[in-house]
Design a protein that fits this description.
Elements lengths: L1 E6 L4 H12 L4 E8 L3 H11 L3 E4 L2 H8 L7 E4 L3 H7 L5 E4 L7 H9 L3 E4 L3 H16 L4 E3 L2 H10 L7 E8 L17 H4 L9 H9 L1 H14 L6 E5 L5 E7 L4 E5 L5 H9 L30 H12 L3 H17 L7 H12 L8 H24 L1
Parallel strand pairs: 1-2, 1-5, 2-3, 3-4, 5-6, 6-7, 8-9
Antiparallel strand pairs: 8-10, 10-11
Length: about 375
C-alpha cells in the first residue's frame, strides 16, 4: 500500500486524485492533505480520508479549521506548511497539484527526502527543470507526470531508448479562443476566456490555455522531463482532444496515446505505475468519432507561444522569467486590470529587460523569479493606468 500526500487537494487535480484513491482503497493510504484556503472542501476530505497531517497556507483559514478537527490530526499553517508534508517520513508518494511557482520548494524538498513525485505542476520544471531533474537522478527519485500530454509521452516512450526518439508531437485542444480571429482578442471578455471547450480546469491554467502559454510551458516541461531538445518538439492543434500526444521514432513509427478526456486516467497511471488497474470510466468509442483533425498553431495569433519557444531556445534563467511574468500578467487579467492582448505584451517587456543567467543555481532562480514578478507588476500597473 502506497502512503500518499496530496499537495493542493482541493483543486481539480487534487479532487480527481482522491476519486481515484477512493476506488482503490487497497492500493493507497492518504497520509497528508494540503490546501491554500478552501476549508470547506478540505474538511470534507479530512472526514472521508482521515489523514494524519493537514496543511493550510492561509493562517486565518487554519484557525477556523482547527476548531473542527480531531486533536489526533496534526494541522500546520503558513507558507511552509506544505513543505513540512513534503518532508514527512510517513509519506511514500507526493501528488503535487499546487499551481504556479509555489510548487517549486515543496518539489525540491520532496526530492531531497527521497520521495517519488506525481507531478501535475509544470511551472516548477519550467523555472528550474535542470536542477530538479539532476536532484531526482542523484536521489533515484521518480518524477511521474500527471498532465495528460506528458503522461501520454511517458507511456509512449516507457522502456524505449532516448536515442531512438525522433520527434514528440505535443497535442493541444487549441483552447477557448481557437475559433476566434486575432482581431477579436482586444475585446474578448474574461467569461469567454474561462469557457474551455474540453477541460474543466482552474482559472489560471484556463487563461494559459486561451493564450496557448500552457503549451509553451509544456514544451519546456517536455524538454526537462524527457531530456530532449526543443527542435524535437512540435505542437499540433487537435480540437477533439482524443490523442493526448504522440512520439515518432527514428524508424518512422509513431506511437500515440488515446483516451476520453478525463484526468482520472493519467492520474491513476501515475499513482499505480508500473502496474495498471481497472477504471470505471467509459471507453473511447471509435465508431462514434466523426473525425480527428490536426493543424499547426498560429504563433502570430498566439504570441505567448512564440515567446515560450524563444525562451526554450535561450534556456538558463529565461524560462523562469517567462513563467513569473506570465503569472503576474494572468493574475492582472483575471482581476480585470489589463485586457487579454496585454498579457503577451507584459511578458515580452520583462523578457527584454532580463539578462539571462546561462547556468543558474537555485538562488539565481529565486532571484530571477522575484525580480520578474516585481517588474511585471509595475508594468501591469502602468497598463491599467493607461
Amino acid at each position: 500500500m502506497k502512503r500518499i500526500a496530496i499537495l493542493g487537494s482541493t483543486g481539480s487535480i487534487g479532487q480527481n486524485t482522491l476519486k481515484v484513491i477512493e476506488r482503490l482503497p487497497r492500493e493507497f493510504e492518504v497520509v497528508g492533505l494540503s490546501a491554500n484556503s478552501n476549508i470547506n472542501i478540505l474538511y470534507q476530505q479530512i472526514r472521508r480520508f482521515s489523514p494524519k497531517i493537514v496543511a493550510l497556507r492561509d493562517n486565518f483559514s487554519a484557525q477556523a479549521l482547527r476548531k473542527k478537527l480531531d486533536s489526533r490530526i496534526k494541522l500546520l499553517a503558513g507558507e511552509d506548511a506544505a513543505v513540512a508534508i513534503a518532508c514527512d517520513q510517513r509519506v511514500d508518494l507526493i501528488v503535487l497539484a499546487i499551481s504556479g511557482a509555489a510548487a517549486l520548494l515543496p518539489l525540491i524538498k520532496a526530492i531531497e527526502t527521497g520521495k517519488d513525485v506525481a507531478l501535475a505542476n509544470k511551472e516548477a520544471l519550467v523555472m528550474a527543470g535542470d536542477i530538479i531533474m539532476r536532484k531526482a537522478k542523484a536521489k533515484n527519485v521518480k518524477i511521474l507526470p500527471i498532465d495528460s500530454e506528458q503522461s501520454a509521452i511517458w507511456q509512449c516512450i516507457d522502456g524505449k531508448e532516448k536515442k531512438n526518439i525522433k520527434k514528440i508531437y505535443l497535442t493541444a485542444s487549441g483552447g477557448p479562443l481557437r475559433d476566434l480571429n486575432r482581431s477579436e482578442f482586444k475585446k474578448v471578455s474574461l467569461k469567454r476566456v474561462l469557457k474551455h471547450p474540453c477541460w474543466k480546469m482552474g482559472r489560471k491554467v484556463t487563461v494559459d490555455s486561451a493564450t496557448l502559454m500552457n503549451k509553451g510551458l509544456e514544451v519546456i516541461e517536455t524538454m526537462r522531463l524527457f531530456d530532449v531538445d526543443v527542435s524535437q518538439i512540435e505542437i499540433v492543434i487537435h480540437p477533439e482532444s482524443i490523442i493526448h500526444s504522440m512520439v515518432e521514432f527514428i524508424d518512422g513509427s509513431i506511437l500515440a496515446q488515446l483516451s476520453i478526456t478525463d484526468m482520472r486516467i493519467p492520474i491513476q497511471y501515475a499513482l499505480t505505475y508500473p502496474k495498471r488497474c481497472p477504471q470505471d470510466l467509459a471507453s473511447l468509442d471509435f465508431f462514434k468519432l466523426q473525425k480527428l483533425t490536426f493543424y499547426k498553431p498560429d504563433t502570430n495569433k498566439f504570441l505567448c507561444l512564440r515567446l515560450a519557444y524563444k525562451t526554450a531556445r535561450e534556456g538558463g534563467s529565461a524560462p523562469c522569467v517567462l513563467n513569473a511574468s506570465n503569472e503576474v500578467a494572468v493574475d492582472a487579467f483575471l482581476n480585470e486590470k489589463i485586457d487579454f492582448v496585454s498579457i503577451p505584451k507584459v511578458i515580452e517587456g520583462i523578457l527584454e529587460r532580463h539578462r539571462v543567467v546561462s547556468h543558474p543555481k537555485l538562488e539565481d532562480i529565486y532571484y530571477s523569479d522575484a525580480w520578474a514578478r516585481e517588474e511585471a507588476k509595475d508594468l501591469t500597473d502602468s497598463f491599467s493606468r493607461g
